[in-house]
Amino acid sequence: MDAKTAASHAATVQSIAAAVKTFHARRQPFRIHHGSTNSTRPAHGQPVVDISALNHVLHVDKAAKTVSVEPNVAMDGLLDAVLPHNLAFVRTNRDLEAKVRALGGRKVLYSHAYYDEDDFWAIYGRAWYDELRLKYHATTLPTVYDKVRVDIEKERAKKGLVDRLAVKWPFAGLIGVASALRS
C-alpha cells in the first residue's frame, strides 16, 4: 500500500473510530452502515456510522498467499486485486468445491460458483431442476447455474473506466464521502 492510500485509510478508520467512541461514551445507540443493504439507513431514527468507504484491498502478499482487506471488499474487487499476482483464487475455490464433494457434501450456492456447467449439474442434478422449471413455466428464465457462475474473463472485459477508477485512490474515498453525504 502506498503512503497516500495508507494515510487515507488511517484517516477514514480514525474518523469512524471517533464517531463510535462518541456514541459509546454517551451510551447512545447507533447503527453501522456498510453500504450494501437498506437495513441501516437513517430512517430508523438512530444515528448511523457509515463505514461503506472501507472497501479496499490493502495489501497482497504473494509469498504468504494472503490478502489484507477492509471489511466491505466485494468479491470482484478481491479477484481484481489477486489475479495480477497469479494467486490461484479460482483454483483454490475449485479445489475446495472438489474436497467438499469428495466428503459427500455440497457447497451452498450463495453468490458465486466456479464449476463448469457439467460439474455443476452433476452435483446439483439437472433432471429434477428442468422438470421443476417446466412445471412452473420458468424455462425462459436464467437457470441457477446462469445466476451463480462466474466468467472471470468476461467480468474483466466489461469493467469500464468508471468501474476501474471507483476502486482507486482518491476516487474511492470521494465516492465514499458522497455516499455518506447522501445518507
TrEMBL record:
Q: Which GO terms describe its cellular component?
A: cytoplasm; membrane
What residues does the FAD linked oxidase N-terminal domain cover? 10-89
One Pfam family hit? FAD_binding_4
Which SUPFAM superfamilies does its entry note? Answer: FAD-binding/transporter-associated domain-like
Organism domain of life: Eukaryota
Q: Does the keyword NAD apply?
A: no
Q: Does the keyword Protease apply?
A: no
Keywords in UniProt for this one? Oxidoreductase
Gene Ontology molecular-function annotations: Delta24(24-1) sterol reductase activity; flavin adenine dinucleotide binding
Q: Which InterPro entries match?
A: Diminuto-like (IPR040165), FAD-bd_PCMH-like_sf (IPR036318), FAD-bd_PCMH_sub2 (IPR016169), Oxid_FAD_bind_N (IPR006094)
One GO BP on record is:
steroid metabolic process
Protein name as catalogued: FAD linked oxidase N-terminal domain-containing protein
What organism is this sequence from? Answer: Verticillium longisporum (Verticillium dahliae var. longisporum)
Q: What is the lineage of its organism?
A: Eukaryota, Fungi, Dikarya, Ascomycota, Pezizomycotina
